[in-house]
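Collaborator request, handled under Task 6.
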Amino acid sequence: MSNTERRTFIKIITAGAVGSFAGITALGQDGRSPVIPESFLLDANDWVPNNPVLPVLLYQGVLTPKGGGETASTFEALFERTGWPAQWRNGVYSFHHYHSTAHEVLGFAAGSARLMLGGPGGREVKVRAGDVAVLPTGTGHCRLDATSDFLVVGAYPRDQSWDICREAPTAAMAERMAHLVFPNSDPTVGRSGPLLGLWKRA
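Structure tokens returned to the collaborator:
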């Protein structure tokens, strides 16, 4: 990362604002500037560990939707190129759960939905086609409701496979989540994207 990019990250994070990156030459999809995500940390919530270090990232309008199948294919190609290869197309489970073996990126290819992040009584978010969510390991999530055409592409860092956890983590699981690696790449843009400034390695 260049000094210009570092200064820009620091300015955005300090101000708590969402704006455009100066000095980043890589463009997002459709030739647009990279989308700056909303980011927030989720505290542990009852049996859901969430992640005390890595924030959830919500990107709005990463892609311009062009039909569910085509948009899903575009997300799959994008995530493959940025080091987060896709593993499935489906929806989001309607029960609270988290992953202890993988970080997860969700590309919303069609429809819209209300999701609950952080476990029961957590944070409600609305997503629609073209948006992306990055959930660090341990982040609770479930679907509250969705349109009938809701379609999601699920992707993970290379060599990580997802599990489904519905109870508090064991000590071994907590240790694994604390040291789970992630790519030096933002899933929406690549090596010049905002994840590198918002996710810090221990």
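The cover message to the collaborator said: "Residues 1-27 have pLDDT under 50 and may be disordered. The chain has four helices and nine strands. Please let us know whether this matches your experimental observations."
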